[in-house]
Design goal:
The complex is a heterodimer.
Chain A: E1 7-18, E2 21-27, E3 30-32, E4 36-40, H1 47-54, E5 62-67, E6 77-80, H2 92-97, H3 112-124, H4 140-153, E7 158-162, H5 170-187, E8 190-194, H6 198-204, E9 207-211, E10 217-220, H7 222-227, H8 230-235, E11 240-241, E12 246-247, E13 255-260, H9 263-275, E14 278-281, E15 287-294, E16 297-302, E17 305-307, H10 310-319
Parallel strand pairs in A: 4-8, 4-9, 6-7, 7-8, 13-14, 13-15
Antiparallel strand pairs in A: 1-2, 1-3, 1-5, 9-10, 11-12, 15-16, 16-17
Helix pairs in contact in A: 3-4
Chain B: H1 2-5, H2 8-22, H3 30-39, H4 45-80, H5 92-105, H6 119-144, H7 147-171, H8 174-185, H9 193-212, H10 214-220, H11 224-229, H12 234-256, H13 262-273, H14 279-301, H15 312-329
Helix pairs in contact in B: 2-4, 2-14, 3-4, 4-9, 4-12, 4-13, 4-14, 5-6, 5-7, 5-12, 6-7, 6-12, 9-12, 13-14, 13-15, 14-15
Classes of the chains: A alpha/beta, B mainly alpha.
Chain lengths: ~325, ~325
Amino acid sequence: MNDPRTIVLQTHHLAIGYGTHVLMEELNLSMCAGELICFMGPNGIGKSTLIRTLAGLQKKISGAIRLSSSVEIHQQLSVVLTDRISSANMTVAELVAFGRYPYLNWNIHLSEDDQHIIDQSISQVNISNLRSKRLYELSDGQLQMVMIARALAQDTPIIILDEPTAHLDLNNRVEIMKLLRTLARKMNKAILVATHELDLALQMADTIWLTGKNKTIITGIPEDLVLNGTFDDIFQFKGFDLKTGKVKQEAYLAKIIRLTGDGFEYRWTKNALERNGFEIVSTEAKYEISMSVEGTKLQWILKDRVYTSIGELLVALTEHE
Amino acid sequence: MQHKRWIILPLLLAILFVLNLSLGSVRIPVQEVFSILLAQESSEPVWKEIVWNFRMTKALTCILAGGALALGGLQMQTLFRNALAGPDVLGLSSGASLAVSLVFMSHAVGWTVLAAPSPWLVVTAASLGCGVIFLIVMAISYRLNDNTSLLIIGLMIGATTASVVSVLQFLSDAEDQQSFLIWTFGSLGGLNWTEIQVLAIILLAGAAIAWASVKPLNAWLLGDNYARSLGINIKRSRLFVIFSASILTGAVTAFCGPIAFVGLAVPHLTRLIIKTHHHSVLIPAVMVAGAALMLLCDSIAQLPGSTYVLPINAVTALIGAPVVISIIMKAKRITI
């Protein structure tokens, strides 16, 4: 993170919404160069509205949005929206080239510099292999990468993305968040991402904007918001313990097991046992399970018998009734 | 590869132009047509007369009307981001029809001022008719945001104006009724040189506005929000495009009647040959393709060697309807 931090966007007593219908008010937010901000909150609360308002696509109700420089907003802020692109016949390179539009006059002639920036944006997102593909040939994840490349080609200090990871599989979600993390750090961009990916946001974001109560946004470092209970307060988790990062399991079998071991093996064994209704303790108990490594193979020992998979171990435990 | 395919269109236009000139109730050999065109001489003086004063005006009308309708259709499809948008589908032609019938039949309801309308007056009325319908459809499309509903709205507007027109017809005498009915079949042959000039000026103006709007037109393909985020002045550009599409459709409808399907089908047929979204390529390409298609339809309407001429709308529908059906069948990937 940059120090001293350069603020690139700031809001003062901003109120957003439609007409007289206020969705959020008294927003005093700031975005800094090099900062990755994850913007979280329940659906329908006005996240997209705030994004459109910050990007100048929608009128604010009151208050002010200040950008650090006086050039046109389109040269300072680019967006990745949830709007579908209907022209699927375009190639990737053509779509990315749209990023240069704020710098072109009416006859949209791309100079060599423009072409260079387009190429650069494509390679920064690691999609050089896709550049002459047409949009309908791309997967959802690839399309999002292309949209990010387009935003990069706009060459703005601020990028705002509205749920870029929605409808993507885990791998693509991680890839996109990692990419945004890298872009913020390496290119010193201020990046705001609206997302529902709690676990990814907690690990990647410099700052979290959390909305959902009293029409305002609470901001802070992810870990602070976890420990002071803000997340629990807003999301009202049902059976998920944010501090351990796990779903609470009910020990419905009322059987206690002492598990000894460490590392990944310990964690995943504990996970399996808890899911199956056992309670795990580290003190003396009726059942004792230990783990050892035989050659390269992992094994579990219960009552002097050796099991080579957790599956076998679970079967044995239920037979011990 | 792409650059070479581009040649197909002008080539097609040239071939169809000559073909169109050599077809008609009087049989004139193609080489004679060439010599009349190039050397201004012919073995039969009457042929020269026929080619220049009858067939040429019609062929030029085809070229101008086809180009104008196709360009209007392209702009509408981009503006609405709807592959099925077109002058006739959205009810614009009906709006123009209403305006024109108002002008033509006005003396039936007692307005003698407009009894002898000049071509410019008819064009202005038709363009206004188009523009009003365009704005209505536009306003509705903002509330609906749904392609199918938009098309149904277009149909309804068409039905409404048609009923107003039939009321007007009811009030007018039989002679006006008949001429109006013939007008609705669409006709490319009835234009004099002044009207052709007016049509040409309108086409140039419409094309110039469209050409100046290449940047917003391209950006619209990403949707209003993205276009705005790229610094496009949506409101102003939209007005320009509406104006251009309205005068193009209005002028053609005023002179040739409501010609269906050309505006809708040509942009799609063009993209089969030139696969691009870039409007600086598409604008000239659809104009050439529209002109070529119109010449083809008119040549078919001539029924080579016969003295009968089919209504042009019957032919454009034969070519246009399959295009619409194929678009809907491929609905999974309707693209503009």
